[in-house]
Amino acid sequence: MSTDQERWSKVQNRLRAEVGEDVYTNWFARMNMEAIEEGTVRLSVPTRFLKSWIQSHYAERVLACWQAEEDKVNRIELTVRSAVLRTVVAKPKGNEFDGIGANGHVFNGAAVRPNGAGDSGLHEALGGSPLDPRLTFDTFVVGRSNTLAHAAAKQVAAAKRGDPVMFNPLYIHAGVGLGKTHLLQAITWTGNAIGERKVLYLTAEKFMYGFVSALRTQTALAFKEALRGIGVLVIDDLQFLQGKSTQAEFCHTLNALIDAGRQVIIASDRPPSDLESLDERVRSRLAGGLVVEMGSLGEELRFEILKARVNAARVHHPGFDVPVNVLGYIAKTVTHNGRDLEGAVNRLLAHNKLTGHPVTMEMAEREVRDLIRPQEPRRVKIEDIQRVVARQYNVSRSDLLSSRRTANVVRPRQVAMYLAKTLTLRSLPEIGRRFGGRDHTTVLHAVRKIENLVGNDMALAEEIEILKRQLQE
Fold first, then answer.
1. Burial readout 32-54 (b: 16 or more C-beta within 10 A, e: otherwise)
2. 322-367 per-position pLDDT tens digit
3. Domain housing 59
4. Contacts of 417 (CB under 8 A, 6+ apart)
5. The domain spanning residue 135 has which CATH number?
6. Are residues 175 and 237 in the same domain?
7. Which of 56, 227, 313, 369 has the smallest number of CB atoms closer than 10 Å to its CB?
8. Is 173 a residue whose pLDDT tops 60?
């Protein structure tokens, strides 16, 4: 690994420590270092929205983290990297249709077909976000943590016009690099290949851009009408949806499509109840569909993903080979997400092709060492706290959320609020809202009450420690 990459890894760790894991995952996990030249560090992100947000809120902090590792760095340059698609344009065939462009204008579209990945004509003409031809159901590796999400996605993708809509909306949530985007793009490829329904894949950023551009060009009505004529709407990275008017339009579109029996599929990095920036009506509508979590990748699934990536690389590089013991080592030690696994394979491939040396365990240990991250503690959710506390004190979760003031309910409720404040990053108002719409002062009183009792009541202190262990296992 180069010295520059080592510095970048240290900068990432420093940035993660300064802003916290949640903020880092939301805004910096997809930032790549492209080059360092004459005191300027070139970084890239996948969307204009991320670039704008980081420049507005974190530019100085990113520069400071770099300067702490390399004092010669005096400037950060942030660019948007674009997805590269190999496409061939087909001639119009008389079955063209009206769609919306990225600027909100309505126009006639022609078909575009990526090599070997199904017809994307509908998608492209509707101004959808770029699709990666590699992200299909055929290349998705199924394991215990993603079986339900994969099955639901395949059923939704294969549905035909007139079929009853079973899961609406289908809401998939997972951490970074666990396969959400892969499933959503696979749905889009399959749906458009079948040709029964118009399928549109949009990132939240592209939805915002289209809506704002339509307002600016006074074509908002055409934008809305075209969007609501979609048979299947696929929205990725919903957590990035910002702006009151944009969220209101998304809510209206969501309601219009669902009420008309159209399919909506959404992905985010958290469940609907945790999308604090979204309107309560939107969260409620999202939670009313099928909500599926894709869990972390187990070692067995990581091994299968690595095998699949090596086999895919071997199509273009027939001499590339990775011993089974090396795959096992990477599967065991590179645990964070699927992108790290793909990065590990790419490094082995680059070393093999550029040096001509075979892949060995020693080489693998050297090349992937920065991808071996310390095991992160389990992310505790307020719903988990409520469930565990209710079971411990023999009350129901609805009791904890109710207005009941009996002693057998008040104490467990206070304990649950205390644990929510100490084990999660949620604010006091958010915790109050999740406990039956209570005021933040009620939560603060509960937290202080339990803090005082723990210092004097050894039995309560032991109970809380047991609850913490159960939640963090």
1. ebeebeeeebebbbbbebbbebb
2. 889 988 888 888 887 788 888 888 888 888 888 888 888 888 888 8
3. 1-82
4. 431, 435, 442, 443, 446, 447, 450
5. 3.40.50.300
6. yes
7. 56
8. yes
